[in-house]
Amino acid sequence: MSSDRDLVHDHIVVGVDGSEPSKHALRWALFLALATGSTVEAVTAWEPLTAYGWMGAGFAYMPTDWDPAGDAEKALIATVDEVFDEHRPPGLQITVLEGNAATVLLERSAGARMLVMGSRGHGGFAGLLLGSVSAVCTAHAVCPVLVLHGTTPPPTGTASPAGPTS
């Protein structure tokens, strides 16, 4: 019988902003999830624009049809589809939340087995990654954090809950 503590650590959170490093992190998160019997939670955060200024003779305005949460969700789904194609991992959770990327990742990973992210991101949304998200997360996370530098692929072969195999 599983305890509540076992159930808390059954997923790996991965920060995804559409950048190549975040796609790489998503691949690693899947490998680690398979190796540990966990699921993957792909997380994107978005922040509302907070600065308004003068444009010509009038105020700048926000388009009335702009849906940042919907756009962020579409971008996350497109990234997941690109990385996994039709082979989405079982139990994959897609999470889109409003807020600072580091804060959102820290909150989502509080009960996770691990937090995985690329060392740099860019995202397609203004304010998605402000400052060094990986530095903040490594300093404040309460779970292990894997920050991927470079493009080293996950180990070859398949991973299973018993561990990776070649």
General description of the model:
The chain has helices spanning 4-8, 20-36, 68-84, 101-108, 133-140, and strands at residues 11-15, 39-46, 54-55, 58-59, 93-98, 114-118, 145-148, 159-160, 163-164. The protein has 166 residues and is α/β, with parallel strands linked by helices. It has a five-stranded parallel beta sheet with strand order 5-2-1-6-7, sandwiched between helices. It has a two-stranded antiparallel sheet with strand order 3-4. A two-stranded antiparallel sheet has the order 8-9. β3 (54-55) and β4 (58-59) form a beta hairpin. The model is unreliable at 1-7, 123-131 and 160-166 (pLDDT under 50).
Structural class: alpha/beta
Q: Within the CATH hierarchy, at the fold level, what is the topology?
A: Rossmann fold
Q: What is the average per-residue confidence, as pLDDT, rounded to a whole number?
A: 81
What is the overall number of helices? 5
The count of domains is: 1
Largest beta sheet: strand ordering: 5-2-1-6-7
How big is the Rg? 17 Å
Please provide a brief summary of the model.
By secondary structure, the protein is α/β, with parallel strands linked by helices.
Main attributes of the structure:
166 residues, alpha/beta, Rossmann fold, 5-stranded parallel β-sheet
What topology does this entry show?
Blueprint: H1 4-8, E1 11-15, H2 20-36, E2 39-46, E3 54-55, E4 58-59, H3 68-84, E5 93-98, H4 101-108, E6 114-118, H5 133-140, E7 145-148, E8 159-160, E9 163-164
Parallel strand pairs: 1-2, 1-6, 2-5, 6-7
Antiparallel strand pairs: 3-4, 8-9
